[in-house]
Specification:
heterodimer, A: 284 residues, alpha/beta, 9-stranded mixed sheet, two-stranded antiparallel ribbon, B: 523 residues, Ribosomal Protein S5, domain 2, Rossmann fold, 5-stranded parallel sheet, 4-stranded mixed sheet, 21 helices, 37% helix
């Protein structure tokens, strides 16, 4: 794959990047550099996540890409990868900003994803080819992620996560910061909830982000139509309670597990609910 | 001058008959035992001489040679003391007909007869060799008396045995005492497990079809508590099974006066620092390991992630074949190992991954390696993956109240969690027995006995889905990215669930419930 070098001051140097303090002197790019000149939104979060975080990252990636927005992220494990995947699934544009050379794949298990992004999107980094991923590269890399975008969405971040650094940089750079609210019991959501407390805009549903960007989203699927009466009853219970164990659902519905199990299972196959760590929740 | 006394020796958990030949001939005084005897038997010469003299008998002052026939097979065990001692004492004495009588027992220096290991398997092989009377230590009488067509003649002292063989006295016939049998330890009842009905349902399904179970959940959520109660819901042991298991425990030396016969399904829970030998058996003179001790019962591996990977790997073949083969210098020994696997594991190394109130300190890499360790060798044996959450009784009660308040027609339990009836061991066992009976009937003449053992051919033949069921399977195949193996597991599980519900046809809801139990290690 050909590596293209863009120098600061060059014609195709992303305009938004010039506005930040300490813009990189040159960018090493692999792929379609044009996608940075359109609308860009960063979708970021922790590497260790729950299924809730991963699903949301994918959904937001899909939603943004379908609306023609470039999804920018860091290609790390967890949220980052899911955001890229979501964008690629929707056939949209996505850019990965690396903390190593453009020819180095980190983490190595994302090899296939990286190839996909190169082919259908863009790999960009300020580090010359061959640079190994050092831990001090990543916080610096984060200023580029936020710098390239008009808004940053933090999906799930633990306390003291690198994503919070990015959000802070984004705020300094004058970018909009969005955060996905999470269950307050869970330490995986501590960071993103804290952002909301500190003034980030909460995303109440996936399409919210489009509304804020002034783009109209797609209609929500009607669960009522595609679910049977029994299924819809449990769907509503789950929707009202957030996440529940099977036993809690049974108790709430007054039904036995032998009866509830198949219904939950079928709804999961239909894609309305999801399970993680032994709990069920409505898929947004 | 030559005498022949019959006895037997152990090879693994089976016995084979041995004849003790004793001969006296002129030469320097001496005592030789030949015929591949091990150290314990060779030492018999030092025990037997004082024992015979202390009984007031004369020990020959000539050359004594004892030969153990067949001479080419290795023999072991202190139970050769009694037949060897009698062989010597009978030299040149009148004796009764001993063609149908065998002797086992260890002799103390004062002539007392001590109990031995493996009395039951020895008795079984002697019975099939045509022995009608078995003289054995009083300690072992209870376990051997489970056999009905052999006369058990317990002895406590060498002189009693000597009186018997010379016709001077007789030995009392041991009568089996019928002990009161509990089908399971009544202190462990599933009714004590509250708020885990969905897990109990999955366990019920596992027990009904003999499927391996993996329970995953945070520390302290009740995994071990439930595992201990699983033997109670399995059907009671048949006579043949009791004899088989008692034989294994006899060889392992685990029988006691309180438990001369194994009446309940075994539950073995080896600690995670167990060695390979301890788990699958072996040693210089092979002894059964935990896998064999759990034969026809439950083998519970708590904290699977803590076990040595090598030890876990060694279990693969025994679990697949239901038998362990160990080769020792001259022979191959087989230990049976048909167990129901129950595995408990934390979701991650530190255990906090699923607990939203605690912080999981595992790195992504650690999570991955933990996951790999969990599944590796057990990918085949585990059909059910249960995610166990800690019980939050308050919350359950609130849910029940909410159900009552909303006036749901399906809420007969709205009286609150405290007043709820939790399914008991007896109820669950009833369902398991019914499902197992259905399977036994269906699989008559097949190589497998229950759904958990169904092979690919069996699945094709017995797990036929309706149109809707097939559609659901196809949808899940796409959505879950099931492997072929995962697909078969779900079909097997669906068969079991249909059997529990008493349905010959596998309905869509049975497939759907089976999907809930799919093995899914996305941590």
């Amino acid at each position: 794959m050909e590596i293209k070098v863009i120098n600061k001051g060059g014609a195709d140097y992303p305009e938004r990047l010039l506005q930040i303090s300490g813009p990189p002197k040159q960018l090493y790019c692999c792929g379609d550099t044009d996608i940075l000149s359109g609308r860009c939104v960063a979708v970021i979060g922790s590497r260790t996540t729950t299924a809730y975080g991963r699903n949301t990252a994918k959904a937001i990636g899909r939603c943004l890409a379908a609306a023609g927005v470039t999804v920018v992220s860091g290609m790390a494990k967890g949220i980052d990868s899911c955001a890229h995947e979501g964008a690629l699934e929707a056939g949209g544009k996505t850019a990965a900003v690396l903390g190593c050379g453009p020819d180095v794949c980190y983490p190595p298990e994302n090899r296939l994803l990286m190839a996909d992004i190169q082919r259908r999107g863009l790999i960009v980094t300020e580090y010359p080819p061959g640079t190994t991923p050092e831990r001090f590269n990543f916080p610096r890399r984060n200023r580029i992620i936020s710098g390239l975008c008009e808004a940053v969405v933090v999906i799930q971040a633990r306390n003291r996560s690198g994503s919070l650094i990015t959000a802070e940089l984004a705020a300094e750079q004058g970018r909009d910061v969005f955060a996905v609210p999470g269950n307050i019991d869970s330490q995986y959501n501590l960071g993103n909830n804290k952002l909301i407390k500190e003034g980030a805009t909460p995303l109440v549903c996936v399409e919210d982000i489009l509304e804020h960007l002034g783009i109209s989203g797609a209609d929500e699927e009607d669960a009522r139509e595609r679910l049977s009466e029994r299924e819809y009853m449990l769907f509503e219970i789950l929707g009202s309670e957030g996440e529940m164990t099977v036993d809690e659902v049974c108790m709430r519905a007054g039904l036995k597990p032998a009866y509830v199990n198949p219904i939950l299972s079928v709804m999961e196959m239909k894609g309305f609910i999801s399970s993680d760590m032994g709990k069920f929740f409505v898929k947004k | 001058m030559l005498t022949k006394v019959r006895t037997a020796t152990l090879s693994g958990i089976r016995g084979y008959p041995v004849t003790v030949e004793t001969d006296l001939h002129s030469g320097l005084p001496g005592f030789h035992i030949v015929g591949l005897a091990d150290t314990t038997i060779k030492e018999a010469s030092r025990r037997i001489k004082p024992a015979i003299q202390n009984c007031g008998w004369h020990f020959p002052g000539e050359r004594v040679t004892v030969n153990l026939v067949p001479a080419g097979r290795p023999k072991e065990g202190s139970h050769f003391d009694l037949p060897i001692a009698l062989g010597i004492m009978l030299l040149g004495t009148e004796m009764i007909e001993l063609e149908e009588t065998a002797f086992i027992g260890e002799v103390s220096l004062d002539g007392t007869i001590n109990g031995v290991r493996g009395a039951l398997p020895l008795a079984i092989c002697l019975r099939s060799a045509g022995i009608r009377n078995l003289v054995l230590p009083a300690e072992n009488a209870a376990e051997a008396s489970i056999l009905e067509d052999i006369n058990i003649l317990p002895v406590t002292h060498l002189s009693e045995a000597a009186d018997y063989v010379t016709g001077k006295g007789s030995l009392p016939l041991y009568k089996r005492k019928e002990t009161e049998q509990l089908p399971y330890a009544s202190t462990l009842d599933f009714a004590q497990v509250v708020g885990q009905e969905s897990v109990k349902r999955a366990i019920l399904a596992g027990a009904a079809g003999n499927h391996g179970i993996l329970m995953m959940g945070s520390p302290g959520c009740g995994k071990t508590m439930m595992a201990r109660r699983i033997p109670g819901i399995l059907p009671g042991l048949t006579y043949e099974e009791k004899v088989e298991i008692t034989g294994i425990y006899s060889v392992a030396g685990l029988l006691s006066p309180e438990m001369p016969v194994v009446e309940q399904r075994p539950f073995r829970s080896p600690h995670h620092n167990i060695t390979q030998t301890g788990l699958i058996g072996g040693g210089n003179r092979p002894r059964p390991g935990e896998l064999t001790l759990a034969h026809r019962g439950v083998l519970f591996l708590d904290e699977l992630g803590e076990f040595d990977a090598k030890v876990i790997d060694a279990m693969r073949q025994p679990l697949e074949e239901g038998v362990i083969r160990i080769n020792r210098n001259l022979e191959e020994i087989e230990f049976p190992s048909e167990v129901m696997m129950v595995i408990a594991s934390n979701p991650c190394r530190c255990g906090n991954l699923w607990d939203s109130r605690k912080i999981c300190t595992c790195s992504a890499r650690q999570l991955e390696s933990y996951r790999r360790k969990l599944m590796g060798p057990f990918a085949d044996r585990v059909d059910i993956h249960i995610k166990v959450n800690p019980v939050d009784l308050d919350n359950l009660e609130k849910q029940a109240e909410a159900a009552g308040a909303s006036g749901s027609a399906d809420a007969p339990r709205a009286a609150g969690a405290a007043a709820m009836k939790w399914e008991s061991t007896a109820e669950m066992r009833e369902k398991v027995s019914r499902a197992r009976a259905v399977q036994e009937e269906r699989y008559r003449g097949e190589p497998f006995k229950c759904n958990g053992q169904l092979d690919e051919k069996g699945i094709l033949r017995y797990c036929v889905l309706g149109k809707e069921g097939r559609e659901l399977m196809m949808a899940s195949y796409d959505r879950l990215g099931l492997s072929m193996r995962g697909y078969s597991k779900i079909l097997r599980m669906a068969r079991t669930i249909a059997d529990i519900e008493g349905s010959e046809q596998i309905e869509t809801e049975h497939v759907a419930e089976a999907l809930m139990y799919r093995v899914d290690l996305e941590i």
